[in-house]
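This protein record is not my work; I was only asked to verify it. Would you go through it and say whether the fold makes sense for this chain? Here is the record exactly as it was handed to me.
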Amino acid sequence: MYVLSLQIHLSLRSLLLYCLVVCIAIGTSCSRYSRVVKKGTNDEKYEMAVKMFKKEDYVRALPLFEDLLAVYRGKEKSEEIYYYYCYCYYGLGQFELAAFHFKNFTENYYNSKHMEKCSFMYGHCLYKDALPYFLDQTATSKAIAEIQLFLNMYPNSNGVYQIDSFIVMKDGFGVEIKDTVTFKEKSNEQIEELRTKLKTKAYENGKLFYKIQDYHAAVVSFKNTLKDFPDMENKDEIEFLIVKSSYLFAKYSVDEKKEERYQAVFTEYKEFTRNNKSGNKYYAEATEINAKASEELTKHQKLHKIQ
């Protein structure tokens, strides 16, 4: 029992000693950082800023780089300082500001060795800053345009983008493995993801008009979706919804407009059958709708002929 108590006591002492050492180290580090910020030379500030950057302490690196930018404005060293400065905003997750500065970097240092990377990062930040599909997609469209511009400027880009990194054990040692893709591969992947957002937005807009029974708006919206995105994965569903919306629009129209609008149903049905085989899951219902439209149009014509 005494031995156990002694072991616990020693463990607690070791833990307290470790905590004390850590606190002293942190205090010393903070003290040195504060001294460099207040009284350090420009070289010391640069060294400290890079050190903080490599430790991913962007909050403390950013103000140092900002001070140095003012000092070295118009000088050769400003290029490297601004490069770090851009990445600080990216590391902090402030993608809108990061995009602004990466773009600014490409416009001011167009002969830089970092030009390709910063051009890529500009588009990448726009991609990161794009909103979910159910919100305004202006930023999404801009991101697609800028990423495509990067691909046009660097069609054979071999720059490397790190997706992730992890540690694996090899011969008793931890080895860092980096999962990477090229800028070109990442850019194409981002464009596809952003286009999917726009597709989803367009499809959901049409569905919303359909749900609130604004069938004419639904037809227009669905047609625009197929015009803008002919590669829609659910193209057959959208073509079917055009037929159904056209039918419902005709069915609930005023008598003077019914004949014209039922004719539109037949046109949309022909388009559907041209693009989809009889085995399609929407084919039977679309055919039924077409038959209903024909029957109702005949009744409508007979009624108005009698009158």
Q: What stands out?
A: Strands lie at 160-170, 173-182. The mean pLDDT is 87.
